[in-house]
Amino acid sequence: MLADEVAARGAAVVEPAAVGAWWRQGSLVRRRILALTAPVAGIAAMVNYGFAGFMYSSQQFPSPILLRPFQWAILLATLVAAFAVAAVGLNRWERLSTLVELGRRAEQA
Fold first, then answer.
1. What's the pTM value of the predicted model, to 2 decimals?
2. Please, are residues 78 and 43 in contact by the beta-carbon 8 Å criterion?
């Protein structure tokens, strides 16, 4: 119980510091950091929603139910797809931002 309290207090201190450090970065770096977190969020969603039955069934049975090779492939494909979507979205956002800035400069000139 004591270890849980220490961990909770440590998280309460570290999380605001991490958000503050992230916020002090430049906007380009912040967007790239968010793009790098996309695979983590994708895997977390896949495990929580797609493989939730495995977590519950493993607690009920004496031996764990192991994932099949195609399920491991789905997890790997989720990582790659989430990163690819985030990278394409980031690239599109940066190109659009550049075009908007060029348009604003052209209007001023």
1. 0.71
2. yes
Q: Is the pLDDT of residue 106 over 70?
A: yes
3-state SS of the chain is: CHHHHHHHHHHHHHHHHHHHHHHCCCHHHHHHHHHHHHHHHHHHHHHHHHCHHHHHHHHHCCCCCCCCHHHHHHHHHHHHHHHHHHHHHHHHHHHHHHHHHHHHHHHHC
Residues 6+ apart with CB under 8 A from 102: none
**pLDDT at 3 (0 to 100):** 60
Chain position carrying tokens 């956002």: 93
C-alpha span between 32 and 38 (Å, rounded): 10
Residue at token pair 């430049």: 26
**Measured distance CA(54)–CA(17) in Å, rounded:** 35
Average pLDDT over residues 56-73: 76
Which is nearest to 83 in space by CA: 45, 48, 49, 32?
Answer: 32
